[in-house]
Amino acid sequence: MIGLLFFALAVLASPLKSKMRLEAENAVLRHQLIVLRRRLPGRVQFANSDRWFFVQLYRWFPSILQVLTIIRPETVICWHRSGFRYYWRWKSRSLGGRPQIAVGLRALIRQISVENPLWGAPRIHGELLKLGFEVAQSSVAKYMVKRRGPPNQGWRIFLRNHAPEIAAMDLVVVPTVGFDLLYAVVVVRLDRRDLVWINVTRNPTAEWVARQVTEAFPWDEAPGYMIRDRDCIYGTIVTRRLRAMGIRDKPTAPASPWQNGFAERLIGSIRRECLDHVVVFGEAHLRRILRSYSRYYNDIRTHRSLDQDAPVSRPVQRTGSIKSFPILGGLHHHYARA
After folding, report:
1. In sequence order, what are the residues at sequence separation of 6 or more whose Cβ sits closer than 8 angstroms to the Cβ of residue 55?
2. pLDDT tens, position by position, 287-297
3. CATH 3.30.420.10 matches 161-337
4. Domain residues of the chain, as ranges?
5. Tens digit of each residue's pLDDT (9 = 90 or more) over 14-45
6. 133 with 105: CB under 8 angstroms?
């Protein structure tokens, strides 16, 4: 009964519709019957031609949504939007122009921009030209690392810039075979972690420590700052000697060995790699051992913080047979090509 009522209303309203609109609705109804007569298993399958047919008629006559029965109106709208995206993707396709730069060059641009936060696109562009890369400045600006704030250096760069002017010193207590105590002073530069001075005594005094500072740094090679702890051995004589050499004294806070981390790390290496494996017989014996280890530490031992290089940079050897040279009686070995 309700179906007949809707049919009657459609018949009464049909004279009010245009002829083209009626033909479009009839075409949609006929095409729906064609799709249903395919008798494919499962859900109703639509080909791309079917989608194009419904979408094109929907563009011309949006009223066909009222006669769609096998698909929902929002499905046709979704097809139309997908076709719109595909169309403009095709319209926006690349028709040539400037070729893309290589992936390796993009990585190099990002690396340079990360390592040099104060450089802009013109500076990086000039550096690439000197390296033999023909690239536009706009491409450099495109592949640079984008920063939110103003360019600035990090703590790593800040400390690396100041490390050549900073040195650190500390004392090491070493027991002998007779349970006597010997004292060794170590002085290290923070720039290359090189052990610039090491010496041994039985009775350390402020005068002796001041003399070691003088012997560690010639007058034209003194650092700008000296980090030390607050041991009472560093008396007025030491502070006066530092001031006379143009070195600013920087004592650490009380009970804060972490503030002198470079010297503490060096002392730990000396203990783990040398002193924990030998029995010291006397002052001369300890001095000889520590100076041998100092040569090994500066000239041979590689450091992760120096990109696997020694404080005194070692050349890379690629030719020759490999030979082993014992150090500290065979506790360590040095490998070189001969």
Report:
1. 76, 79, 80, 83
2. 999 999 999 99
3. yes
4. 15-87, 103-144, 161-337
5. 554 567 777 777 787 788 777 777 766 666 66
6. yes
